[in-house]
Amino acid sequence: MALVDDIGRPKAQLSEATAADYLSLLKPRVMALVVFTAFVGIVAAPPGINLFDAFVAIGCIAVGAGASGALNMWYDADIDAIMTRTARRPIPSGRIQPEQALSFGMILSVLSVITLGVLVHWAAAALLAFTIFFYAVVYTMWLKRSTPQNIVIGGAAGAFPPMVGWAAATGTVSLESLILFAIIFLWTPPHFWALALFKSGDYGRAGVPMMPNVAGEASTRRQIFAYALVVTPVAVLPWAMGYVSAFYGVVSIALGAGFVWYAWKVLRMADGDKAMKPAKQLFAYSILYLFAIYAAYLIDVVASRAGVMS
Prior knowledge:
The chain has helices at about 20-25, 30-45, 50-75, 75-80, 100-120, 120-145, 150-155, 155-160, 160-170, 175-200, 200-205, 210-215, 215-240, 245-265, 275-305. By secondary structure, it is mainly α. It is flat and about 55 Å long.
C-alpha cells in the first residue's frame, strides 16, 4: 500500500505506472458505454456526416470520457484508498502519482475538445467540454461529497454522450437526442443506488453521502422503484413519438418490465438484508438494460433506413 500524507493522498515517489495503469485511469468500462451511446446518437441523427468525421467524433468522445475518468480518479484518490471497490486503482495503490493523473486528464481533455471542434463541429466540441467539466467539477468536486442527490444531478454527465454524437452529426441538438439523454439520466439513480445498497459500508467509511447512508435503505429502495416506474415509459417515448418502429417499442416495453420487476424485488427486500441479492441482481440487470435499449434503437434506425422496418 502506498504511503499517504495527512489528508490521505499518496506521497510523492517514483512512478511504477505501466500502460495498463494509464488505461485504467480512463475507466474503460465506462468509456465503452459512453462510446456506444454516442455512436447511437450519431447514427440516429439525420444522415449527412461522413465516415471520417464520424470516426473522429467517436474517438474524441472516447478520449474526453477517459479524461473525465482520469480527473475523477485524481480528485477522489483519498476516498478511493478507503473503499474496497477502488483501493487497487492506480493512484491509491501508488502506481501513478496524483499530479501525473491530473496532467494526463487535462491534456486529454484539451486535445479531445480542440480536435472535435477543428475537425468536426464546434457545437459538439462545446458540449463535450461541458460534459467533461460537469463530471470532473460539478459532480466529482462538488456534488459527490456534499449531497445524497449527487448521482441524480451528476448523472447528467453520463447522459450527454448521445447528444454530443447527435451534435457532431448535425451541429445541433433535437428533441429526439434529448429523449436519448433522458433515458440515461433517469436510469442512473436506480443503477447506482442498487450498487450503493450493497456497498454502503464502503461509502460510509469514505464519508460519501450516498442515499442509503443518509436516507436509509428503506427510502432508497422506494426511490429506486419510483425511478424504475418513470424510466420505463420514458424509454418507450421514441416509439410513441414515431422516431422508431414497433420493434424498438416492444423491446423497450419488455426490458422496462424486467427493470420494474427487479426494482420491485429490491423494494420488497427485508430491512437489514445482509445478502443484498435483489440489489445485486438489479445492478447487473440495469447494465444489460441500458445496453439493450440502445442496441435496439440502433438496430431499429439502421433497419428502417434499409427498408427492413417501417
